[in-house]
Amino acid sequence: MIIPVILAGGTGTRLWPLSTRDCPKQFLPLLDPERSLLQQTLLRAQDLLQRLGQPAVEPVIVCHEAQRFLAAEQCRALNIRAQIVLEDEGRNTAQALALAAQHLAHNSQKPAEHREQTLMLAMPADQTLSNNAVLAQAIVSLQAQVSQGAAGIFGIEPDYAATGFGYLRKDASGQVVEFREKPDVHTAAQWLAANTRQQAGWLWNSGIFFWQVQAFLQRLSEYQPALFAATQEAMAQAQQDLDFIRPATGPLQQCPHLPVDIALLEPLSAIAQAVVAAPLVNSGWNDIGNWQALSELGEADAQGNIVHNSAAAHGRFQHSHNNYLHSSSGRDIALLGVQDLLVVDTADALLIAHKDQAQQVGSLALAANAGKTEPRLVYRPWGSYEVLHPGDGYKIKRLRVKSGGRLSLQRHRFRAEHWVVVRGEATVIRERAGVRTSEVLHANESTFIALGDIHSLENNGDILLEMIEVQSGDYLAEDDIERLQDVYGRK
């Protein structure tokens, strides 16, 4: 049995300012206005199992606890039930895969006597692959070796001398004999030239792995015993929290920050047939690692300019060539007499960079995260809110509450709130002197929540509830929330 393991813990800093600490790129609808990259990966995994003739199974998602409700909601929207394993801190793919494998080893959907046959297909949640049949064929080509304990990896045949990817080299039998991290331009060009003289040996590392669970754990215990022991103990003490699996955080504190390539695959490549690779030819793979990579998926006009997302309605070019514009702010943006620029405009920040600096954007994201207190758009388990205008002594927000969503029963010490319903149906709950009451508001109706009032809000209707919230008071930060009761288990 193959179980998809979706790695959704990445930070996506090189797609800042659209990808942020609060909502990294895998949770964004970058390529499909209706589905995020995570959702596309989940659907891809379902399709793969169908192509392989296997019944549907619950995938395992590994993500940061800060994005747990985003992951759960995006699964719910697809009607996919997943096992969501939470990391308190992302420590790269070795820990993420180890937690997933430890979970599967003890909670496999197979009977205990057959668990050694469980295979995991690890897929990053922040990539795209337009031809799933190619991956299905590659899985079949490696399945016998993987079932015998080999590590399987899928490579991409390079079509240019890329410096942003890790590389692997396989021999004619498919055995991986070497891993190399991101090379300089000269070295990458040498490898590309070597591929043209013979059967492709140098491949980009796609980050998609195929491994028998028990074989992975055995190798982990041999090459990374501290990581094995820590993740084993963390999962043995794991707690179920709503739909989430929370490993114990204590044992993980000393885990090394290692990609699985360095932790296991590089040392294993010295052993005959321990790591095997299959190329994904014409698969449409793209890791969407930076704005340059994303721009290559867009459609250019006659001057080579590309507009993405809502920028199509607000972007104009004059005497400009080979630029990429992505806008989610709604502002009118005009480019005049420039070329080879990346322009990304969001409610929180504006990025203007030369295309050849796309790999360096991550450093700007780290600086922005260090100095930023609150993003404009914030996701919550009940939906989201957007700060429309912060002022001196007041703040205006747009609240979007999904059908069935419920804000916590709460009160504020420093602010009052005025709610106006724009669309949908709001059930407003108040509690005074131990007596709880509710009222239903519809579009164009409003209510006032006085400072100190115990209150909550529910969307019991069938459509999205949209409201405008006007806060007033001397202190308007989000930590002025005293939660008294919360269906999502938040403190």
Automatic annotation (TrEMBL):
* InterPro entries xrefs: Man1P_GuaTrfase/Man6P_Isoase, Man6P_isomerase-2_C, ManC/GMP-like_b-helix, Mannose-6P_isomerase_type2, NTP_transferase_dom, Nucleotide-diphossugar_trans, RmlC-like_jellyroll, RmlC_Cupin_sf
Instruction: Please state the pathway this protein functions in, per its UniProt record.
Output: Nucleotide-sugar biosynthesis; GDP-alpha-D-mannose biosynthesis; GDP-alpha-D-mannose from alpha-D-mannose 1-phosphate (GTP route): step 1/1
The reaction(s) this protein catalyses:
alpha-D-mannose 1-phosphate + GTP + H(+) = GDP-alpha-D-mannose + diphosphate
Q: Which GO terms describe its molecular function?
A: mannose-1-phosphate guanylyltransferase (GTP) activity; mannose-6-phosphate isomerase activity
Arranged from A to Z, the UniProt key words for this protein are: GTP-binding, Isomerase, Nucleotide-binding, Nucleotidyltransferase, Transferase
Q: Which residues form the Nucleotidyl transferase domain?
A: 4-302
Presence of keyword Cell inner membrane: no
Can you give the residue ranges of the MannoseP isomerase/GMP-like beta-helix domain?
A: 329-361
Entry keyword Nucleotidyltransferase: yes
Q: Locate the Mannose-6-phosphate isomerase type II C-terminal domain: which residues?
A: 376-486
Q: What is its EC number?
A: 2.7.7.13
The regions listed as transmembrane in this protein's record are: none
- NCBIfam families named in the record: GMP_PMI (TIGR01479)
Report the family membership: Belongs to the mannose-6-phosphate isomerase type 2 family.
- Report the protein name in the record: mannose-1-phosphate guanylyltransferase
Species annotation: Thalassolituus hydrocarboniclasticus
